[in-house]
Amino acid sequence: MSAYNAPLDDMFFALTKIANIDKLSKVTGNTDINSESVKLLIEEASKFAKEKLDNINIEGDSKGIKLENGLVRMPESFISSYKSFVESGWFTVAGQKQFGGQDFPWSVLVCINEIWESANMSFAVNNMLTQGAIELIQEHGDKTQKNLYLPNLISGKYSGTMNLTEPHAGSDLSDLKTKAEIKNGKYLIKGTKIYITHGDQDMSENIIHMVLAKLPDAPEGNRGISLFLVPKYYNDEEGNKIKNDIKVISVEHKLGHNASPTCVLSFGENNECVGEIIGQPHDGLKAMFTMMNNARLNVGIQGVAIAERSYQRALSFARERKQGFSFNKGKKERVNIIEHPDVKRMLLEMKSQIEAMRGLAIFTAEAIDYSNKLSNLDERKEYLNLSSLLTPIVKAWCTDQSVIITSLGIQVHGGMGFIEDTGAAQYFRDSRILPIYEGTNGIQALDLLRRKLPLDGGKTFEKLLEKIKKTALDCKKSDLKEIITMGNLLDEATTSLENSAAWLKEELNKNPDNAAAGATPFLNMFGWILGGWIMCNSSLKIINKNSELADKFSNEKINTSLFFCTTYLPTASSLMSTIIYSHKSLSAIN
Questions:
Q1: Which of 136, 198, 224, 498 is the most exposed place for a label (fewest CB within 10 A)?
Q2: Contact present, 178 and 246 (Cβ < 8 Å)
Q3: In sequence order, what are the residues at sequence separation of 6 or more whose Cβ sits closer than 8 angstroms to the Cβ of residue 404?
Q4: Is residue 35 scored above 70 in pLDDT?
Q5: CA distances (Å), 512 to each of 505, 509, 516, in order?
Q6: Whole-angstrom Cα distance, residue 492 to residue 546?
Q7: Nearest to 66 by CA among 57, 76, 58
Q8: Between vectors from CA 409 to CA 408 and to CA 410, what angle results, nearest 5°?
Q9: Is position 87 annotated as part of the catalytic site?
Q10: What architecture is the 161-282 domain classified under in CATH?
Q11: How far, in Å, CA of 68 to CA of 523, rounded?
């Protein structure tokens, strides 16, 4: 089986051409982060992932985890790799410097996270959630909580989890039953949470659970939710280490992601389960959304990552598998299947979408970086709105495509892909949770429709449209016919996007259900058009860099971009009829 190698050239291109890491470094005053240092960083991450994570991925999938005496036992190889991960300092890339972090920008973190997730998603999701916990405590924790927990989370000594879902409520957080009561000056948590990723494991010394619960005087609905930090272990007033009353009731048996423990947790079932409130009472959902938004972007990255790994495996197989004869060469000798046009087409579908997804994710992360670091408050708000608009698209579009791409990975393998020996099936199984994670993709589409399109009175969407239109115009002025073709397709698709958004806005006011019926196809339209914009921009940057297109990377980028735009932008444009008319048939489903 082929080993994982991070797509360093494309990552570095996206970081320096789609985003601009050197400009970000100057604007934010973080001179430690520049294109040279970042290139070295992702190269080292690639080596670590190949040597320590990719080689244990299949073992994790086949052996999974075990629940013994109320404790989750990870595969031994995961425990040793986690120790190496901590010792190598990889946890510290996130987090403020005063607490031991290196404060890397999100545009760099998403590349590093993609590397971990490609190599071993079950292992890497622990790091992803811990990053979210770090950001949450940095933004909403008090001074004592920051000093106590951040150094341990940033070092990897502790890990973090997110506890929202309950058995009866699913995605409806307004119906939470978990309670928090004050007794002897302590918050005591009581309730049950389900689907808690890495809710227990024996890799880190402690686990810090972020738990949504309601105080006795809580108002009804989302306004009554508070957020509590609930550690697996805590020290009492005498300094004794106490095991909190958090019980692993069960671990889920899943379609994939087998070495990532998904736990049902009971808090305070037998004894006291002690927590600390984060932020203000009844204001917990606002704080938790810091972690959720972090996770939504990172789940989008998981989609890019698992698709990339599937592509690499399929490409390697296609180069080695001999079957059939060439149309051009005639029936003289069998050829590697990569010579068959349909196999090439499938591989290009995978490659082109992955590059578009990666570029969009890095562009979104850069907007988050500027929203966090710029001194001008108006500019910060503008970038915050832009990242808010893009995040549900990155999460939903990238994860939906990851399922399709990993399915194509199986198809390239043919019958060999449907059996476990080749490893292709694992990526498909692992990818299927991603459109469900952190708010299903239908919820992301409704969020885009109801909250993100109207941001700043619709100006955020309008400004983004202007950027896309300018790129289309620049492409149409190019001397290269391939780029002119891309520009025309992007221009046509953008008109469909603009018209669809106008219809949705009007219909949302008159007939909300009709608009909701078009929300998911609109998000997909938006995703493919943004992907086309990324690929058009990439092509323009390549031309500016190298007018003769002499090197292999430049030629591949132009060809891949042309394939994406000619394949997916017409598809995006065609979705307008689905957006506007699909509601007319929905009454047939009861």
A1: 498
A2: no
A3: none
A4: yes
A5: 9, 6, 6
A6: 28
A7: 76
A8: 90
A9: no
A10: Beta Barrel (2.40)
A11: 43
Q: For residues 126 and 192, what is the distance between their CA atoms, to the nearest angstrom?
A: 21
pLDDT more than 70, % of the chain: 98
pLDDT for the residue numbered 2:
83
Q: Does residue 331 carry a pLDDT above 70?
A: no
| Residue 559 burial class via C-beta count within 10 angstroms: exposed 0-12, middle 13-18, buried 19 and up | middle
Dump the DSSP string for 266-331: EESSSS--EEEEESSTT-HHHHHHHHHHHHHHHHHHHHHHHHHHHHHHHHHHHHH-B-S-BTTTBT
Flag the least confident range among 168-172, 301-305, 324-328, 499-503.
168-172
Secondary structure string (H, E, C) spanning 269-286 = CCCCCEEEEECCCCCHHH
Q: Read off the pLDDT band of 330 (50, 70, 90).
A: low
Structure confidence at residue 332 (pLDDT): 75
18-34 pLDDT per residue, tens: 999 999 999 888 888 89
Q: Provide, rounded to the nearest whole percent, the portion of the chain with pLDDT above 90.
A: 88
Residue type, 194: I
User: Taking the CB of residue 531, how many other CB atoms lie within 10 A of it?
Assistant: 28
CB 120 within 8 A of CB 54: yes
Across the chain, mean pLDDT equals 95
Q: Is the pLDDT of residue 286 over 90?
A: no
Three-class secondary structure assignment of 516-528: HHCHHHHHHHHHH
pTM for the structure as a whole: 0.96
pLDDT in tens, 76-92: 999 999 999 999 999 99
Please determine, for residue 60, whether its predicted confidence score (pLDDT) is greater than 70.
yes
Ranges assigned E (strand) in 445-584: none
CATH H-level, domain 8-158: superfamily: Acyl-CoA dehydrogenase/oxidase, N-terminal domain (1.10.540.10)
Distance CA 554, CA 360 (A): 19
- Residue 532 near residue 486 (C-beta atoms within 8 A): yes
Catalytic residue (choose from 87, 438, 492, 498): 438
The one-character DSSP state at 77 is: H
> CA geometry: angle at 251 spanning 250 and 256, to 5°?
160
Across the range 166-182, mean pLDDT stands at: 84
Measured CA to CA, the distance from residue 527 to residue 389 in angstroms comes to 12
